[in-house]
């Protein structure tokens, strides 16, 4: 049995689906603050919060858990700057509750949902795992703290882990069963698609004077199904005796904001009005990662690497959800 914390959320629900496709039984543990119960189409949903240690204990007593996939976290960068206590308390303290339960019940494997935000503004590109991690906001700092805690728990309690540092997760399941839905929504692609559908008036482009090919920021978009595949491979790696470590997950290529908008116009056949704003503080011009380590060690390679496919799947899901 696999425990998936935050498994009713965007990324967690896709991993939960793929776990079942690979023959695993799962229990999803989610407080549904940001998750959606209807996204848990596979396995068992147990509603609860990692802050509630008694409820967490019930889960470990009720199910014979072999490994944990940990997605439960707050993930709004701007909010983390305004309210760091919320992020350190939820992301870090609650993770300690989870890890302590794992140690108590002798669960030895955890796949942790980390982020490229742990690197801050990278000094070189593409970003590799050995680069210095200097996060510039409490969200990234909270994830880095958890990575450090996992290292210490590994040494002290023989808890084995893989930290998967995502770049920009995007897209939806190719079948249109589940997709990206946040409240509030801050991610570029669903905002663009909302503008295409007429659910918002425009899409804001923050900065047009960056040193990039068209002046807008460039980001590395990774299909959520490819992310899910990497998680399965990371679990197999640990179960086969692989050493605890971290992996970047991205496409190793980048698309600019304006390129994504142009591609979305082609995919949807809709006009999308862009409104140009000043740069946002702290936004690096280019953020692209190297996934060569994941390819070499896990045998992982993205199957949906082009931005058109990512947009096609996301648009299919958006239309199903809307109508």
Describe the model.
- This protein has 323 residues and is an alpha/beta fold.
- Helix content is 40%, strand content 17%.
- The protein is built from 10 helices and 14 strands.
- It has helices at residues 10-21, 53-62, 77-82, 84-104, 138-157, 188-197, 224-239, 257-268, 292-298, 307-322; strands spanning 2-5, 26-30, 44-47, 67-70, 109-115, 160-166, 168-170, 203-206, 218-219, 221-223, 245-249, 255-256, 274-277, 286-287.
- The protein has a 7-stranded parallel beta sheet with strand order 3-2-1-4-5-6-11, with helices on both faces.
- Helix 6 (188-197) crosses helix 10 (307-322).
- The mean pLDDT is 95.
Which regions have little confidence, pLDDT < 50, spanning 5+ residues?
none
Q: Specify the structural class.
A: alpha/beta
User: How helical, in percent, are the residues?
Assistant: 40-55%
Strand content: 15-25%
Tertiary shape: globular
Rounded to the nearest angstrom, the distance between the terminal CA atoms is 35 Å
């Amino acid at each position: 049995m696999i425990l998936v914390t935050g498994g009713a959320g965007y990324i967690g629900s896709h991993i939960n689906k793929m776990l079942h496709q690979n023959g695993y039984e799962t229990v999803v543990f989610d407080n549904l603050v940001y998750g959606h119960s209807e996204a848990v189409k596979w396995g068992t949903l147990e509603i609860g919060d990692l802050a509630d240690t008694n409820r967490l204990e019930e889960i470990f007593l009720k199910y014979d858990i072999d490994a944990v996939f940990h997605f439960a976290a707050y993930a709004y960068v701007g909010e983390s700057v305004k309210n760091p206590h919320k992020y350190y308390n939820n992301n870090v303290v609650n993770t300690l509750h989870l890890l302590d339960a794992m140690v108590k019940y002798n669960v030895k494997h955890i796949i942790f949902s980390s982020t490229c935000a742990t690197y801050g503004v990278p000094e070189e590109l593409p970003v590799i795992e050995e680069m210095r991690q200097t996060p510039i906001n409490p969200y990234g700092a909270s994830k880095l703290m958890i990575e450090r805690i996992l290292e210490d728990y590994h040494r002290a309690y023989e808890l084995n882990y893989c930290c998967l540092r995502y770049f920009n997760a995007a897209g939806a399941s190719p079948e249109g069963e589940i997709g990206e839905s946040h409240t509030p929504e801050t991610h570029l692609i669903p905002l663009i698609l909302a503008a295409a559908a007429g659910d918002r008036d425009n899409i804001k482009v923050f900065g047009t004077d960056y040193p990039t090919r068209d002046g807008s920021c460039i980001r590395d978009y990774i299909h959520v199904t490819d992310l899910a595949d990497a998680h399965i491979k990371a679990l197999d790696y640990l179960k086969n005796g692989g050493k605890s470590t971290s992996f970047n997950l991205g496409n190793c290529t980048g698309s600019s904001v304006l390129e994504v908008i142009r591609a979305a116009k082609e995919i949807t056949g809709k006009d999308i009005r862009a409104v140009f704003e000043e740069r946002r503080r702290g936004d690096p011009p280019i953020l692209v990662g190297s996934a060569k380590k994941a390819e070499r060690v896990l045998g992982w390679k993205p199957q949906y690497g082009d931005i058109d496919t990512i947009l096609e799947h996301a648009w299919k899901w958006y239309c199903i959800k809307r109508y």
